[in-house]
Amino acid sequence: MRIPSGVAHPRLHAVLQPHTRFAPGETAIVASYESAERRVVGWMAANGIALLRLSLGIVFVWFGALKFVPGSSPAEHLAGATMAKLTLGIVGPQAALPFLALWETWVGLALVLGVHLRVALALLLLQMGGTLMPLVLFPSLTFVRFPFAPTLEGQYILKNLVLISAAIVVGATLRGGKLTARPASCCCSGESCARRAA
Hints:
Strand content: under 5%
Structural class: mainly alpha
């Protein structure tokens, strides 16, 4: 038994396929917008990774340099206590701080200068793993109400998730990958892009 859908009705057909014609003035506005958007998206694709790497490096240099000056970093006490706990007391808070400062500053400089990126990103991700540990080791300091209401220190730590994601994006370009403003246009079954280009 066939149930009529009503799609063939002329009025419904007109609703399902509305006219997309624009007036001459509207066409010019749409064309201008699309042209501007293409330029902006193209610029973002060409410069996004470099800007992400630079901004990530600046954050690490800045936060690392603060740890060289006692009392300058709001996270120094928590960082020192975390390092001491992770090393079972082998590295005390006072010794941990300059070590972390040197670590973060070197990573930041490598990112800013674009050198030794593989080593820098590996050290960054390792260090970021350590920075998340206070959420587990010191929940009374990082949460007002665990696990939904972080303290200011907890929020400071949670923002590192963004830094980790940024490092992953930069790392995805280490073997020549890049952002593109347009989707790939040669994805067909069983045929490579190189073969089609040839």
